[in-house]
What we know:
Elements: H1 41-53, H2 60-74, E1 78-84, H3 95-116, E2 119-125, E3 138-141, E4 144-147, H4 169-196, H5 213-233, E5 247-251, H6 255-260, E6 262-263, E7 272-273, E8 278-281, H7 291-297, E9 303-307, H8 313-323, E10 332-336, H9 343-356, E11 362-365, E12 372-374, E13 380-382, H10 384-400, E14 405-411, H11 446-464
Parallel strand pairs: 1-2, 1-14, 2-5, 5-8, 8-9, 9-10, 10-11, 11-14
Antiparallel strand pairs: 3-4, 6-7, 12-13
Helix pairs in contact: 1-4, 3-4, 3-11, 9-10, 10-11
The protein binds phosphoenolpyruvate and cobalt (II) ion.
Amino acid sequence: MSTIAKRANKIEVPDLMEGHGWHPLSWNDKEIEQLPEYPDTAELQAAFEELKSLPPLITSWEIEALKEKLARVSKGEAFLLQGGDCAETFDACRSPKLVNLLKVILQMSFIMIHEMGTEVVRVGRIAGQYAKPRSKDFEEVNGEKMLNYRGDLINSFKPDVEARKPDPRRLLEAYQKSALSLNFLRALSDEGFADLQHPEQWELDFMHNNEFYKDYESMVASINNAIKFMETITPNRFNTIHKVDLYTSHEALNLFYDSAQTRRVPRKQGWWNLSSHMVWLGNRTQQLDGAHVEYLKGIQNPVGIKVGPPFDLDNLLSMLDAINPSHEAGKIVLITRMGHGQVEKNLPSFIRAVKQNGHPVVWSCDPMHGNTYSTGNNIKTRKFEEILDEIRMTFDVHRSEASYLGGVHLELTGDNVTECVGGANGLNEDGLSHNYETYCDPRLNYEQSLEMAFLVAKEWNRSYR
Ligand code: PEP
Ligand code: CO
């Protein structure tokens, strides 16, 4: 099947387009991967201008705070937990989903803090993770050829030629859904924190089958004792710890969305993407002269870069020089996603070269995207044990290179879905169809996520304690 054009619609927004160097729309002159053309440029321009005029979702000082925390991670003083859906959907902007996701990320972080005795920086794939790269531009449904679904930010999941055309109104809906999600998450992490980690909120029964059950049970008891202790000594419940930080992130893929929210801030240098605290560059949009790298060169936010096949080390080093020429600490998170069979062969040379070039990066491991496969029934899944294997091997390689693996990047949900096989509950391929919800990649469910947090902490202790 044919491929889509490598040029995005050309828009003109004079007050963003300062000078001849970098500006929030300078990417618009470059070739772009993974973004189909909008049918109507005037409509796109109108949506862009509307989005550009709306208030920011986050602030520059939050971005600075995250960067400082990531700088601590890069020095081995903290650990990064980044996780959430592969693709958020507009329909899933609902209370239970958001509560469950916040709950699972918080509980995972408590497990890590307790087991590792180190600060944990929480970053959700949330409040903007609506655009997806796809390996095929088109698909055929009932004999009709149509664009592939690329996430709710771009087109509809509905298999219909019209619904699959990119629709610029989705830029505004994504902004609205992100704002609603963020508003609720901020309220929950300010005041609902006590409820979210109360003893009865820990659902542990599944761990009975696990060899670590005793450790796990005593860990939760100890976390709960610590919480009760805080309750007893502080007159206002959780006076000192009632607020938890959760930062947001998404893939900077649809650059119309990101650049419309890239702003100047009073009394500060540079341009800030105020749609999200952190954004990342996917594995398929890393062309040095391409639009995505161009955009990321100019923003102040921390930037994640996926590191995977085809393992082009020179390209990675050039991207680091381009995106972080001043070697600022806390700016870059390198997220390796090699596949469990590729880590030992490819990771050591990357670690050595980055070190030799003096780039102060955070190393994180995405053990999901290199380990996806389809079952005989054509269901996309991942094996818990292979995910864990990639994490183990990544820790091993970092340890033997005297390097610090400072984070994990996971696709997960707080719901009881059946998308990945394995784990303590022993979900097998036959069980996948029970509650398979994802529109994109398979996620760890609540139980698998807690178990993974516990096992990541074990690996970290094995390497760095
Ligand atoms: C993702 O994180 O959902 C993703 C598509 O990852 P990658 O770019 O590493 O394939
Ligand atoms: Co994914």
